[in-house]
Amino acid sequence: MTNIARLFSILTILLLSQAQAQIPADLRGTLIVLNKSGHNASFVDLGSGENLATLATGRGPHELVASDDGRWAIGTDYSGGNSLTVFDVEELSVARTIDLRQYPSPHGILFLPGQEQVLVTSESSQRLLVVDFQEGKVLRAIDTGQSESHMVALSADGSRAYTSNGSSNSVSVIDVASGQIEKIIAVPNRPEAITSNKLGNEVWVGSNDEGLVSRIDADSGEILNQWSGFSWPYRILLTEDEKFAVIPDLGNEELRFFDPLTGNETGKIDLPGARPQGVTLYSDDRILFVALSGQNRVLVVDIETRKILGDYAVGASPDGIAYSPLLLWKTIDYQ
């Protein structure tokens, strides 16, 4: 090895070490990240940046949800897995795998109030499932009435669910208690990303073919706001207090920020080569974690200032992501 080559190698190692060490100093808890290409999940200690464990999932894990106490995390094995993987976060283990071959292509997932059951979309069967994740049983299968039901949103009281129906260009509004469809709302073509406000009277929808995000009155179907210029508005996240909205644009490789009260766009972060996908919030409701599928890392962003605070290395093609307040690395000295 020449002296120049040796120097280049040393500099590369130093730069990589510095990049991996660039983590916020005061974050605590555990980040759980589904790695689509790795067919596994990374468990990262936020204080140290250490990967605590890598656990196998079913094939092609996509979406992830964690309980408020951080004890349980559940991922959908969408691309060939046809299952749910239930993680016992405290034990760093897979508690069970729930077979959903009868309801293939499970994708969107959210906890129902009480957090004993989850809502799961089955894209191929056009169903919205109610699943007892502890018993590993499908309790109900609700027909969405539309094709390619991909993602799900839910009002805070759990009474109303919404599915984005990709090939039907619609949103199904479902009364969860009765399992009945309240209405079908026509939306711009190829809807995927979806969320709702806590009251459940508004639904936000991203339309991939038209590069639009629409904020819609869920009762009348009226479009309240609409934003353009997206390539692939992959997910839509509202902070808990509903003062900020964040939308990762996978195609344009950027994060865009909006004020839900005024409808104004407040800024964006360009992320060339990063391919931003899954998003979740830290406990303070202002720090954002973004899975960068093109760089196998998770970015940490201050939502108010739009400042990048650091990043964490994870597995191959990260997407679904969730935060747990549990401190699993008991021996770490954070001082």
Number of domains: 1
* Number of DSSP E strands: 28
Kindly report the name of the CATH homologous superfamily: TolB, C-terminal domain
CATH topology term: Neuraminidase
What's the gyration radius in Å? 20 Å
CATH architectural group: 6 Propeller
What is the typical, i.e. mean, pLDDT?
93
The largest sheet has its strands arranged as 3-2-1-28
* CATH secondary-structure class: Mainly Beta
User: Strand pairing plus helix content: what structural class?
Assistant: mainly beta
SSE ordering: HEEEEEEEEEEEEEEEEEEEEEEEEEEEE
Beta strand %? over 45%
Our measurement of the CA-to-CA distance between the termini, rounded to an integer number of angstroms, reads 40 Å
Largest sheet composition? 4 strands, antiparallel
Number of helices: 1
List keywords for this structure.
335 residues; mainly beta; Neuraminidase; 4-stranded antiparallel beta sheet; 1 helix; 28 strands; disordered N terminus; disordered C terminus
Question: What report would you give on this structure?
Answer:
It is built from one helix and 28 strands. Strands 3-2-1-28 form a four-stranded antiparallel beta sheet, with no helix packed on it. A four-stranded antiparallel beta sheet has the order 4-5-6-7, with no helix packed on it. Strands 8-9-10-11 form a four-stranded antiparallel beta sheet, with no helix packed on it. With 335 residues, the chain is mainly beta. It is globular and about 50 Å long. It has a single domain (3-143, 229-324), classed as 6 Propeller (Neuraminidase). A hairpin with a 4-residue loop joins strand 1 and strand 2 (40-45). Helices cover 6% and strands 50% of the residues. 47% of the residues are buried.
